[in-house]
Amino acid sequence: MTLLVAGGLGFLGLAALCLSLGRHHQALWPSPPTRRRVLGLRAAGWTLVALSLAAALHFDGGAFGPVHWLGSLIGAALLLVVTLSYRPRALVWMAALAVVVTLGAALA
Q: If DSSP codes are grouped into helix, strand and coil, which group holds residue 69?
């Protein structure tokens, strides 16, 4: 369960951080991001990454939580690299799927 919750939150956080960059933002939307949107995406991204660490610590404790968190964050980052390289538009439905999976695992 830890990998689903922490991985989902980490994926969403890293996706928000990626979309705060102009290059990745313009791969999904035609216009460059405004300063306000960049700051909002960065704040949301770092908040979600911090929440993924908190979830890993909550589910697995201080001994294994950081290890599982780093593993899930690395997996999420690799998935984002491949997605943004080959099919950047797929990030929209992948983010929606990550929200559903994360909420389902957190509530189970």
A: helix
Q: End-to-end alpha-carbon separation of the chain, Å?
A: 9
pLDDT digits (tens, 9 = 90+) for 41-78: 999 999 999 999 999 999 999 999 999 999 999 999 99
Relative orientation angle of helices 90-107 and 2-19, to the nearest 10 degrees: 150
Q: How far apart are CA 85 and CA 34, in angstroms?
A: 23
Amino acid at 32: P
| CA gap 37, 82 in Å, rounded | 24
Over residues 90-96, mean pLDDT:
95
- CB–CB of 17/107 below 8 Å? no
Q: Are 63 and 27 in contact (CB under 8 A)?
A: no
Q: How far is the C-alpha of 71 from the C-alpha of 6, rounded, in Å? A: 10
